[in-house]
Amino acid sequence: MHNTIPKVSIIVPVFNAGKYLQKCLETLQAQTMKELEIILILDCPTDDSDVLAKNIAVHDSRFIIVENSTNKHIGLSRNIGIAKATGEYIGFSDHDDYRELDMYEQLYKKAKDTDADIVVSVPQTTLKKDDGNIEEFPILEDFERKEYCLKNLLSLGGLSNNNSPFATIHGNLYRRRLLINNELKFIDTKVITPEDLIFNVAAFHQASNIQFVNKKFYFHITHTHNTGNESFYRDYKFRGPGLEFLYRQTQTWGDFDKYQQSLYRGLSKQAIQILATAFCSKNYKHFIIVRKYFRETICYQEALKHYDLPNNNVWYKRLFRHFLLWQLIEPLHKSS
Q1: C-alpha–C-alpha distance, residues 98 and 92, integer Å
Q2: DSSP states of 256-303 as a string?
Q3: 67 — alpha (psi -120 to 50), left (phi > 0) or beta?
Q4: pLDDT higher at 219 or 313
Q5: CATH superfamily, with its number, for domain 8-231
Q6: Which of 313, 124, 311 is nearest to 220 (CA)?
Q7: What's the rounded Cα separation, in Å, for the pair 119 and 109?
């Protein structure tokens, strides 16, 4: 039994995690930092994941069980966890992932040593070099780090990448007071996505002190039942409005001009990527529907006016991207 005040609260929405939940919970229970609370949000699982979660909570008082009366999905479940948390810092885990056993000890030490609002560690699935090695975060002055992170986030990785290493939440710690005082919450993932990107943009913008730890702690397991692999998650009906939400959110910033070009790059890249997926799947009816959506949505049209295609691909890839861009910006022919 552990009765100490928690330094870190870890929020874990649990649905049908299957065989992966055991390792997830074991690598939380065995953390070298003992002053934890692990909040398991049981989101109406149907595969006995709830049985395993409740069993570990019986034997370890640091595990707190919260049961949703209806399936709320991952975004709203995390919000319930944030409201329940009492730790100085908050971390997030998916129910099918695992981590190094000293993860939270090292992240918390960095947070306390630097008085950080957010501590970011190297994500498992990004920052890869061509040879497969993990790159390190750049060495930046404290005042530069926030701008660097936000520009990379909003542009979805800048000129040379298709995603940002700062778009995930799982390898990070967030000061709980930062989230509570600024009412930072996750979007409803039954309606729009991507929740981590939108959350991090808001959190990084409100943070005064962001710190990096150049180490990989968290291991994201990819399998067919990942939420991120489900077709709805990347569909334009969810992701398009999600990035519209992000556009409206950033419009309220007093320093929006500093980040405008990065946002336009990210919106344009996402529109082209979604359109490319529709075209390459040879579902041309869907391609036309997606094209119409992006043509008629103001934030994407505004972004595309200011977008220059990166010129670092082989000629046929550049030609294809120019074709997609033309499909998006060609004026609509209104019927008379």
Answers
A1: 11
A2: HHHHHHHHHHHHHHHHHHHHHHHHHTT-HHHHHHHHHHHHH-HHHHHH
A3: beta
A4: 219
A5: Spore Coat Polysaccharide Biosynthesis Protein SpsA; Chain A (3.90.550.10)
A6: 124
A7: 10
Domain boundaries, given as residue ranges, for the chain: 8-231, 235-329
45, 120 Cβ separation under 8 angstroms: no
Helix and strand totals (H; E) in the chain = 13, 9
Residue in 60, 47, 58, 44 with CA at minimum distance from that of residue 18:
47
pLDDT in tens, 261-302: 999 999 999 999 999 999 999 999 999 999 999 999 999 999
- Report whether 95 contacts 11 (CB < 8 A): no
Token output for 98 = 């695992």
* Helix or strand holding residue 33 (H, E): none
C-beta of residue 38 within 8 angstroms of C-beta of residue 12: yes
Pick from 319, 299, 294: which is nearest to 309 by CA? 319
pLDDT of residue 143: 82
